[in-house]
Please model this.
Amino acid sequence: MRSGKSIPTKFLYWTDDACHLWIETCNEPEYRFYRDSLIQLKEIAPNIATEVLSSCGNTSLDLISLGCGDGKKDAILLSSLVNLLKNDGNILYYPVDINATMIVEALRAIARFPLEMNKLETKAIIGDISCLDSLKPIYEYRNSPNIFSILGNTLGNNSEEEILSSLDDGMFSGDFLLIEFSAASDPLTYADFEKLGTTFKYPITPQGSIPLTALGSSYDPERIDIVIKKNISIIPHTKTIVLYYEKILIDGTEFRQVKLSSVHIYNENSFQDFIEKRLDVKTLFFSCQRGIGLLLARRN
Ligand SMILES: C[S@@+](CC[C@H](N)C(=O)[O-])C[C@H]1O[C@@H](n2cnc3c(N)ncnc32)[C@H](O)[C@@H]1O
Model:
């Protein structure tokens, strides 16, 4: 807070309560981003699976889901991959999340999904996705290509530089990357805000209270300021919705205009160009519908 940086996003998801609040929010009909992204993934997952399996010769694969959340999207993706996999191939699924309760939810979602379980093995990792280098010894267990998925605008809610550096360190040549992101028209319109629904209201809901109460500060949603800014993201032409908390008192020290969180909303073309260059990947599949972008790329 002294540096003026945002409170790291992982602290919004830190506790059991945070996990349950996030899942409740996802079930709210006005959270259109989440609902639409599930619909879109159901439509597109077979194409993604076909692209991945045909470009790596239909071999066994490892799916490393960075910030797996409730695992519903992973279940959709795994189902398409498993359906298209050759008889002797299998998928090793690594759900990675900072929150252990989230991982339990993800494992439940996978177990509930009609999947050929003999083609699937799971190793859950409670860990920080911004330190993939330290998780490498776990997913280096075998030589199969990795698919790193980072879904749900998790990149756009986090420190982009930390996550992209982590991916840069964690990916090997021939690995795949699947990123979902929030996209909007230029300038931002009311419809864009509507699409985001509670995403952008999210930290104003009790979720926002989690890091504040952990710091011993009181929480009052009336003290939140929402500002739209340009040039905050490292990716050009991005708009950022920043949420500030008016005042926090910790051990007698007062902090003003604390950056509670920010949400980046990207220009789809700039996003694709930037990711290709920054991570040395080549796009295999790109889609942007209903304000939700999905980029599948492979590392050179
Ligand atoms: C916006 S939710 C997305 C969940 C899921 N990928 C989806 O699209 O439905 C972000 C998830 O990432 C996790 N997360 C956020 N920052 C993290 C970090 N630094 N390390 C590990 N997990 C993190 C949160 O706990 C949460 O489960």
